[in-house]
Amino acid sequence: MPAMERMLELAAAAAAATWEVFLLASPFILLGLLAAGVLHGLLPAPRVARWLGQPGLGGMTRAALFGIPLPLCSCGVVPVTLELSRKGASRESSLAFLVSTPETGVDSMLLTWGLMGPVMTVARPVAARATSLVAAGSSRLSPADPPRPAPAETARPAAGGGDSDSRPGLVRGLRYGFGTMVDEIGFWLVVGLVLTGLITVLVPESAIRDGLGGGGPLTLVVMLLAGLPLYMCASASTPIAAALMLKGASPGAALVFLLAGPATNASSLVLIARFFGRRFLKIYLGSVMATALAAGLALDAAAIAFGWRIEPRLATAEEGAGWLTLAAAAALAALLALSLVRGSWRSALRDLAADLGRWRLLFGAAPEHRHDAEGGEAGCAARFPYRGQRHARRVPGAPALEVRGLSARYPGDRRPALSGIDLDAAAGERVALVGPNGAGKSTLLRVIAGLLPAASGEIRLYGQPEAAFHHRVAYLPQRGELDWRFPLTVRRLVLTGRYVHLGWLMRPGAEDAAIVERVLDRLQLTALAERQVARLSGGQQQRALLGRALAQEADLLLLDEPLGAVDAETRRVMVDVLDELKDAGRTVLVATHDIGRLDTRFDSALFLAEGRAASSPPGAPARAVGTEVSR
Amino acid sequence: MSLGPGLAAGAAAAVLIGLSCASLGVYVVLRRMAFVGDALAHAVLPGLAVALLLDRSPFVGALVAGLVTALGIGWLSERQRLREDTAIGVLFTAMFAVGVVLTAGRDPHEVNALLFGDLAAVGADELVVLAVLAVVVVAVLALLHKELELASFDPTYAEAVGIRTDRLRYLLLGLLALAVVSAVRAVGVLLTTALLVTPAAAASLLTSSLPRMTALAVGLAVGSSLAGLWLAEELAVPSGAAIVLVCTLGFAAAWLMRAARDRAG
Question: How far apart are CA A566 and CA A353, in angstroms?
Answer without folding.
Answer: 43
